[in-house]
């Protein structure tokens, strides 16, 4: 099936099964810094959505960029999964108990020296996002179907224009990989 039915009922468990059946690509950390992000999903108005954040323009790094909630691993984190959940809580006020972690995607290395491990999670309703203004200028949900549309832009930063924002770089790479998995899910 090219485009799966994009609802929670059609996606939540099939995503969990698809991620459990694959061996994600792991990159050696070596000279890079370990980081993790949460790819948060929920259903809004009968349609599966992914949540994104825009970083504040005042941030030292990644200023003004569209991203998933996440950041570098801290020594207190038991795992990169714990990093993703801690960062989502710090940035958006999402309690880890309200996130059903479905699985992990491939690692991505950034030109800024991070190796990002993305974790896909379904957010339990009702949602109450409480963005931390020092880390998040805007939080917004984009229907997953928007990422099945052709990308815009030029290599190497092809991405998508969604909800008045441009998704590019590592975030676009993570989205591309996830959409590839979604395309293989049979509803």
What does the average pLDDT come to?
88
**Structural shape:** globular
Low-confidence stretches: none
Share of helix, binned = 10-25%
> What would CATH call the architecture?
Alpha-Beta Complex
What is the count of DSSP helices, taking H or I runs of 4+ residues? 3
**Category by helix and strand content:** alpha+beta
Instruction: Report the CATH superfamily.
Output: Nucleoside Triphosphate Pyrophosphohydrolase
What name is given to the CATH topology?
Answer: Nucleoside Triphosphate Pyrophosphohydrolase
Task: Name the descriptors.
single chain; Nucleoside Triphosphate Pyrophosphohydrolase; 3 helices; alpha+beta; 8-stranded mixed beta sheet; two-stranded antiparallel ribbon; 187 residues
Describe the structure.
With 187 residues, the protein is an alpha+beta fold. The chain has one domain: Nucleoside Triphosphate Pyrophosphohydrolase. Helix content is 22%, strand content 29%. The strands form two sheets. Strands 1, 2, 3, 4, 5, 6, 7 and 8 form an eight-stranded mixed β-sheet that branches. Strands 9-10 form a two-stranded antiparallel ribbon. The termini are close together. The model has no long low-confidence stretch (mean pLDDT 88).
């Amino acid at each position: 099936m090219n485009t799966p039915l994009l609802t929670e009922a059609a996606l939540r468990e099939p995503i969990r099964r698809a991620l459990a059946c694959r061996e994600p690509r792991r990159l050696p950390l070596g000279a890079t810094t370990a980081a993790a992000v949460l790819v948060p999903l929920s259903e809004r108005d009968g349609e599966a959505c992914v949540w994104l954040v825009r970083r504040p323009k005042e941030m030292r790094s990644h200023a003004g960029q569209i991203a998933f909630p996440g950041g570098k691993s801290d020594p207190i984190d038991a795992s990169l999964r714990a990093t993703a959940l801690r960062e989502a809580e710090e940035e958006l006020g999402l309690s880890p108990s309200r996130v059903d972690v479905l699985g992990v995607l491939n690692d991505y290395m950034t030109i800024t020296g991070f190796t990002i491990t993305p974790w896909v999670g379904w957010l339990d309703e009702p949602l109450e996002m409480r963005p931390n203004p020092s880390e998040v200028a805007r939080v917004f949900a984009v229907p997953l179907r928007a990422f099945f549309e052709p990308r815009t832009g030029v290599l190497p930063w092809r991405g998508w224009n969604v909800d008045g924002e441009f998704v590019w770089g590592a975030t676009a790479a993570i989205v591309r990989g996830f959409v590839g998995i979604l395309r293989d899910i049979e509803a």
